[in-house]
Amino acid sequence: MAKATDYKDSDALVKVILYKSKTLADGSHPLMVRITKDRQRKYVSTGLSLQLKHWDDKKAEPRRNCPDRLLVEASINKWKAKFTEAASDLKQEEKPFSALRVAAKAAKSVRKVSVLGFIDEYNDRLNKEKRMGTASTVRDIRRALVRYETDEGRSPEKLLFTEVTPGYLDDFRSTLAERGLAETSMAVYFRTLRLVYNQAIKRGLVHDKHYPFREFKVSQFDLRTRKRAISKEEIGRIVDLKPETARLQLARDLFVFSYYGAGINFVDMAYLTWNDVQNGRLRYERKKTGHLFNFKLSVIAQQILDYYRPLTYKGIDAYVFPILDRHRHQTPKQVDNRIHKILGQVNPDLKVIAQMAGVEVVLTTYVARHSFATALKYSGVATAVISEAMGHQTESITQTYLASFENELIDEAFDNL
């Protein structure tokens, strides 16, 4: 008797299994569609693979500990439905057919999927999962595609994944370059589009044979950032400023706190609560990566906290900086909008701060992070631990070494900031 997870139509049994006879380089096994007809079997790759510990053989489904379990389940269901439909169509022809025929028919019936339609669906899922940062970049690439297709005289809603070829991507890149988009920004666009395409493949909505990023390499973009770190002497001039308005005061304080707070980025500063400040140390989890940070607060960082405590402290769960309000910003969307709004104020305000301090570099919240990394390097910390380019390319390495600041080397380096 067929299990509840099996589809048995038209004398053909369709099931997605973990194909243990083949082991991939990472130790995982491919997920295969197995079509059984008249004691003959045909296997078709789904393009997915899982570790053995993430698969339940009895239920023929991913376990609860499987990464992206819901996404994998949705993909499995689509694969099974597609092949079951093919078998059903063949049965209605009232002619003998084989498992191979089922596979061939299903291959020809791959649904044409609109890129924008899938982006909207994927973005909804990201919002439900509260992955607001990724959702924001996905919305950005959607807007860019809509503008590009419209300018080319095409209907954006009709763009299919199979039409996103290496040539299409190259033309898209040329158009973005003509508009003056920086290489780093283009890299973000194409990485995001690659992510979307990979998700569509995972869900069985487009065959991986159409995958354009094997030929069109995102690595072609020049991601070397201009040196934007400022010196400790310039940091000192910013620290000594006495801003006349509350807005400029907040911008100055966030910049200085980022520098003296291990290069903490703006989003994480917005989320900081007084519970994260304990015994002269700052402990928090980075929103982007989930990495835990724990380091000794410098004198200047502590002074900034002392300034804001009487203004924002309403209990240990209250936010440190006056960016978010628990009563007004409750949903992920409200929080995301508020953070982007304040960041849109802070960076222009930092340009005013730079003029006041006589700093020629265009100040942004990222400059503080970059300056922190550079200061540590010149304080004697090995580049393997703290990289001068503590940005997108090497951030994961830096975070690995900064996950715990308990060791004396880092604490001593902080004293030298």
From TrEMBL:
One of its GO terms (biological process) is DNA recombination. The keyword DNA-binding applies. It holds the Pfam family Phage_int_SAM_5. One of its GO terms (molecular function) is DNA binding. Belongs to the 'phage' integrase family. Keywords: DNA integration, DNA recombination, DNA-binding. Coiled coil: none annotated. This is Site-specific integrase. It comes from Spirosoma profusum. InterPro entries: Arm-DNA-bind_5, CB, DNA_brk_join_enz, Integrase-like_cat_sf, Integrase_catalytic, Integrase_recombinase_N, SAM-like_dom, Tyrosine_recombinase_XerCD. The keyword Methyltransferase does not apply. Residues 113-201 form the Core-binding (CB) domain. PROSITE patterns: CB (PS51900), TYR_RECOMBINASE (PS51898).
